[in-house]
Amino acid sequence: MKTGIVILCRYASNRLPGKILKEIKGRSVLGHIYDRIQRGAHNYPVVVATSLDHSDDPIVRYCQRSMLECFRGSLENVAKRLLDCAEKKSWDFVVRINGDNLFADPDLLNSMLAIAETNEYDFITNVPGRTFPYGMSIEIVRVSFFRRVLGKIQNLEHCEHVTSWLYENEQVGRRYVLKNKHCPEAKGLHLALDTEDDLVRHTSLFERMDNPPATYRLAEIVRLATQPEQLSPWLGKFGPLLIAEIGGNHEGNFEAAKKLVEKAIATGVDYVKFQLYRGDTLVSPVESPDRNRHFKNFELTRKQHIELAQMCQHGGVGYLASVWDLEMLDWIDPYLSVYKIGSGDLTAWPVIREFARRKKPIILSTGLATLDEVLQAVAQIQAIDERYRYPEWLCLLQCTAMYPITDEEANLRVMDTFKDTTGLAVGYSDHTEKDLALRTAAAMGAEVLEFHFTDSREGKVFRDHKVSLTPEEVLQLQHDLLKIKNFRGENIKIPQPTEVEQGHIGSFRRGIYLRRIVERDERIGKEDLVALRPNLGIDARDSDQLIGSRARKKLMPYYQLSWDDIYTNFIGGNLAKDK
User: Fold this and answer.
1) Please, where are the H alpha helices in 494-559?
2) Which of 243, 312, 316, 274 is nearest to 477 (CA)?
3) Cα 150 to Cα 47, 68, 142, 173, distances in angstroms
4) For the segment 416-432, what is each residue's pLDDT rounded down to a tens digit?
5) Helix, strand, coil distribution of the chain in percent, nearest 5
6) Fold of 235-488
7) Whole-number Å distance between alpha carbons of 116 and 408
8) CATH code reported for the domain at 3-226
9) Is the predicted pLDDT of residue 522 greater than 90, yes or no?
10) Half-sphere exposure of 416 (CA within 13 A, CB side)
11) Domain 504-575 has CATH 3.40.640.10
12) For strand 46-51 and strand 23-24, is the pairing parallel, antiparallel, or unpaired?
């Protein structure tokens, strides 16, 4: 049983001419539709079906450039165009997707194809009831059945709307209607691309996507489309959010802690971070007496911690703390806009559940953990509040819980794994010496950078000082992070302003020119063409379409060509020679 997918589209659409080739984030609408189809049905052939009218020639040229198969058929009878394409390909089933379906859902397409593969139905659709958004319609029809149906249709309007007759005659054919039971909030949402307003709204939605648009599933698209844009809490003054971790570097000395806060504030970091604990509520005095004494020696009082938090607030930077004692969380909570959960507490589910219940953004360090353990902790947090499914609410930090670590142990590519697996924000908590790992993490897309902070490493015995940055090093890091931010740019591949302003798109690229004089009505051969700069007239990418065409008038060599100079006839995506 053979099944193929047809994207029905026209360039000269009534309400938004040229919409199918409009570019969003450097990719055409048709390209975005194709990308989403490939994710849901990469083993199925895809054909772009447009009309024989010359107004649709731009679609054919785009398909030829993109190595997409293109079929040309009836202008008015769209249903016949679909059917002719399917029969020419000898398909048993044809999938119909419209050119306004910018958000064709890969999961939905995959499910419907699986139903078609049972060979039990003539018509599979998700349209009745509109449980899916407008503009997310997918229909699969048995080709032989559709041929019989078209023979019964008298009204050309039914042929234009392809399947409308089937909806008016519900008793015809064996049917399967797929309902949306997984994302009820999508019901009735308008995601079709019909008007200029739709284009503006959808472009704004695409601009909020950090990952490739085709990877976004229905629930994510619905969230972006229905919820106002939320400012990410992970945006720092220098790109990534910078957290200067004083931690235990005060070594229990409150005056030293205050001096470190002052120096950190002076650097302009986004947050200054401490650790809140009591030795007896953190470490067993029986099983680990030495560590219990260590933490007791580093304790600060409630009054001292609050004074440090107030110093940060008055200094214009955020205060952050890894709170390892839930009783301490109650009185420090008013000073926390974000929670930080350290690596040691990733498996302390009663602790992380309590943080989630308090409904503030969470940063979760992942030292010591396997991917399974990280995902389990994430699931615990998300089970408390759905908002932690979103990157604005939960950030995962790659971390290796040793002091110091080797370059290899930084393992920064884990950030990519976290991003791909969870869709959450990612960052890096550094335990290397110096700051190259931090710069590298920023270049790789870390949204949060946490590093230990000290006034000086000289003469210090406590291990954390060795992996800490000094004020001077933080200032240099910030300078470099701004450069890295500029180097990274946006995730949109389009010509840059200087390329456009200097005219390099035309002057650097090649157009197609004639090598010799071509007389009126004379045919143009491959040997007559040469690709030269500048790219004026006919683009070098379209040279194949000139081969075998005839000149409308006498054409001179090395002058720019125009399609108005040439007799052409595009059929089925290929240039047919005039007879």
Assistant:
1) 497-501, 504-508
2) 243
3) 21, 28, 12, 13
4) 999 999 999 999 999 99
5) 45, 20, 40
6) TIM Barrel (3.20.20)
7) 49
8) 3.90.550.10
9) yes
10) 5
11) no
12) unpaired
